[in-house]
Amino acid sequence: MRSSKSNNKISKGDEQQTINLVSLDQTYVCFDVEQLTNARQEVKLKRYEGIQDDIAWRMRTNVPTRYLINPSRGFIQNNEPITLSIELLENKFHPNHKLTLQAIAIIDGCNERTIWKHQNAKNYSKVQLIRLKLSTVLINVETTKYEEENFTMGTRNLEKFMEQSSTTGFKRIKELEKLLNTLEDDFSYIRKSTDRTKRLKSALEQALDSRKLTLVELKRRVIESDQETKKLKKELENKEVELQLAQQIQANKSNSPTCRIS
């Protein structure tokens, strides 16, 4: 492993600087927990351009029995993306679930495992943390609807305030400045809502694809069940015929006269 030589190397005295070693193509993970199989999402991990260090990384969670992550740890020596599969076991999600990706530059004398026991791993200025935002499709639909209703109500209240305002001069200027700040906050909210809506749209499209696959799977199971039922019914009919034949043979033997020699 090569030693740390990148421009992102942090000095011991600089504890507040943020270190950027890797990136994820998305930090928002939305699970479709209504499907038959375990909900699963993929994210892509990549080393930042310009970073020359070998990077060790690992995924940490507060519920290790609930998430199956493959791979869950490793190291990066080039700029090729790594696909991480995140599977929610039994689709049992809770808002308190946490997933965090940790990344650290590998130094001389350490490998991708022993580096986590080095003192650098205890120094927050040398370890990058990426916290994933976890949610479900249902939670996001309800949240989006609630926020839309609140935004509509806020817009109406603002219009009502402007109509009823009778201030002039300096007070009017202050009032408009306050209104401008409110509108800037609203624009920021709209941008965030737009991003959330795009992510929700993507999650819903994936959920729709999952439902289509689920429908195909259910149809397959119905066909197999129907075939199995017909097979069992046929076997039962054959058994009944065999039983009736055996009973008939037994009855014939009982009714036959017995010859005795004196």
State the strand order across the main sheet: 2-9-8-4-6
- What does the main sheet amount to? 5 strands, mixed
Please indicate the percent range of residues in DSSP E strands (runs of 2 or more): 15-25%
> What is the CA-CA span between the terminal residues?
106 Å
Question: What is the overall number of helices?
Answer: 2
At the first level of CATH, the class of the largest domain is Mainly Beta
Number of individual domains: 2
What's the β-strand tally? 9
Structural class: alpha+beta
- Apparent shape: elongated
The CATH architecture name of the largest domain reads Sandwich
Low-pLDDT parts are: 1-17
Instruction: Indicate the CATH topology of the largest domain.
Output: Immunoglobulin-like
**Rg for CA atoms:** 33 Å
- Give me the strand/helix succession: EEEEEEEEEHH
Task: Specify the CATH homologous superfamily of the largest domain.
Answer: Immunoglobulins
Mean pLDDT: 78
Portion in helices: 40-55%
